[in-house]
């Protein structure tokens, strides 16, 4: 029994010492109403410029959300650079299958890769991404959270 406990403690310590090759953060949308001027931003550090990364938008919404998609404007700023913007049409549902992603009761979460493949971060340092909604409705109702997830490709 003591051997099993020692092995479990050692395994736990090795896992806890491993670096996490991931950034994920979400911002809550107040009162489930996303206004144009609510622009969550996410800042993280990149030290490994030799690796490639997958970038995901994470979005939580209720079943009452009125559209099959959402248009987002993604701002990205690299160290020592100006901010660059790109518009993204994120599909949230299909007519045949309903809501994409995972759901519990009336809340659904989608995690969508927003790059055609893994991308490099060419400079070490602080990166900032911002996400705004650019739908024709203001405020955009029934959005709970929006976030960014960065995964290092192994």
UniProtKB/TrEMBL annotation:
It holds the Pfam family GldH_lipo. InterPro entries: Motility-assoc_lipoprot_GldH. Residues 1-18 form the signal peptide. The keyword Lipoprotein applies. It comes from the Bacteria. Keywords: Lipoprotein, Signal. This is Gliding motility lipoprotein GldH.
């Amino acid at each position: 029994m003591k051997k099993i406990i020692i092995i479990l403690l050692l395994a736990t310590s090795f896992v806890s010492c491993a670096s996490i090759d991931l950034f994920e953060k979400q911002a809550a949308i107040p009162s489930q109403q996303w206004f144009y001027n609510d622009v969550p931003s996410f800042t993280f550090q990149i030290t490994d410029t030799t690796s490639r990364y997958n970038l995901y938008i994470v979005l939580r919404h209720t079943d009452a959300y009125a559209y099959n998609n959402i248009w987002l404007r993604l701002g990205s700023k690299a160290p020592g650079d100006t901010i660059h913007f790109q518009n993204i049409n994120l599909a949230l549902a299909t007519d045949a299958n309903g809501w994409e992603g995972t759901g519990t009761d009336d809340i659904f979460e989608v995690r969508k890769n927003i790059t055609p493949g893994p991308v490099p971060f060419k400079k070490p340092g602080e990166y900032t991404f911002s996400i705004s909604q650019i739908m024709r409705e203001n405020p955009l109702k029934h959005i709970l959270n929006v976030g960014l997830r960065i995964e290092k490709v192994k």
